[in-house]
Amino acid sequence: MKYYTVPFFSLVAMLFSSCAIHPCGKSKEKPCRSDYEFTSFNGKTHKYQIAITKKPGSPLLINHGLGGLNPATLEWARALGDHGWKVYLPLLDSDFAMCNLFLHKWRMLKSGIWETHDLNSSGQVLGDMEALADWISKRHNGKKIVAVGNCLTGAFPLALLSRQSVKTAVLCQPALPAKSTLQALFHLPQSVEKRRAFGIPEAEMEASLQSLKKDSSKHLYGFHYFQDAFAPMDKFLSLHEELARRGIGGKFRPIVIVPETSDLNERWWERMTTTTPVSLVRPHPTLTGSDEPDRTRLRARFDQLVRP
After folding, report:
1. Exposed/middle/buried for 110, CB within 10 Å: 0-12, 13-18, 19+?
2. Torsion over CA of 162, 164, 166 and 168, rounded to 10 degrees?
3. E strands in the chain
4. Of 107, 173, 217, 236, which sees the most CB atoms within 10 A?
5. Model confidence over 98-140: pLDDT tens digits?
6. How far is the CA of 16 from the CAs of 13, 21, 28, in angstroms?
7. How close are the terminal C-alpha atoms of the chain, in Å?
8. Is 255 helix (H, G, I), strand (E, B) or coil?
9. Is 174:150 a contact under the CB 8 Å cutoff?
10. CA–CA dist 257, 269 (Å, integer)
């Protein structure tokens, strides 16, 4: 009885935590497997399937959010493939074109490579993505890559920034450590510590910040809806404060989306307005699944900031 009871309640907790209560982003067209090449990468104990855009270009790693490698993320990757990028999309306990929150959460629980509630850890999956970044760079004769994370994986690129193989990190509404079941269900706030944390080991965080300071070729960008209920803006603020303390506050360039009627405006982030209604039952994905017209504007801004 205990064997089944513990996993069941663990699963329930995961299903209703953080960004679990939201639909995947919409796409205009159904993804086709024939538009991608497929290969695999061996992590420490886990094997990852990877979808890769077919056209030649500069290497770009996209880690998908909760629910799986959904059609909206694949649609963006295909567009990036037309803009000079070779896009790598690891299936993190996902299937191709998957949009299933419950199944994805169950697979994450079974795989044992995730840590979704720890202040200083995201689990083995983060270390595997660091190794994957090096692997991608080697496939491109040592060319440095751009790494993008989303929601569940939103902070991963910050940890990857310490790697010699990575030149640019793009953080999209990082959500780990995730909210607890009760916090998600009743829209209760997390502790200040969790709201400001990234789920990255302290040594790796320090290495990334040192790398950003010492290497002028490294860049750090962010995209975030200010009122996202599951991915607190406190994370961006804590990162800005830490970088400012080190004298490099200007190296973090966040694009923050606020309601059109809002007077919110901070000198350290770039303001973008939206008419999209705020919802308390789902987060607001940016590059991989925001609603129009936000999606077009956000992706255009990415194209301006991050070049192949």
Report:
1. exposed
2. 70
3. 36-42, 47-53, 58-63, 85-91, 145-150, 166-172, 219-225, 252-259, 270-274
4. 173
5. 988 889 999 999 999 999 999 999 999 999 999 999 999 999 9
6. 6, 7, 28
7. 55
8. strand
9. no
10. 10
The pair of three-digit structure tokens given for residue 121, joined into one six-digit string: 């850890």
pLDDT tens digits, 237-251:
999 999 999 999 999
Token pair 């060319």 is found at 143
- Pairing of the two strands 219-225 and 166-172: parallel
Given a contact cutoff of 8 angstroms between Cβ atoms, the answer to whether 26 and 289 are in contact is yes
The answer to whether the bond into 177 is cis (omega within 30° of 0) is yes
Query: Which pLDDT value is given to residue 6?
Result: 37
Structure-token match 């969790």, residue found = 194
Q: Which two structure tokens, joined as six digits, stand for 35?
A: 């538009």
User: In whole angstroms, what is the distance from residue 162 CA to residue 208 CA?
Assistant: 4
Residue 188 class from Cβ within 10 Å (0-12 exposed, 13-18 middle, 19+ buried)? exposed
Cis geometry, peptide bond prior to residue 254 (ω within 30 degrees of 0): no
Which tokens go with 172? 């999209």
- Taking the C-alpha atoms of residue 45 and residue 257, their distance in angstroms, rounded to an integer, is 39
Residues 6+ apart with CB under 8 A from 6: none
Q: Count Cβ atoms within 10 A of the Cβ of residue 265 and give its class: 0-12 exposed, 13-18 middle, 19 or more buried.
A: exposed
As a whole number of angstroms, the distance between CA 5 and CA 118 comes to 23
Q: Is the pTM of this model over 0.85?
A: yes
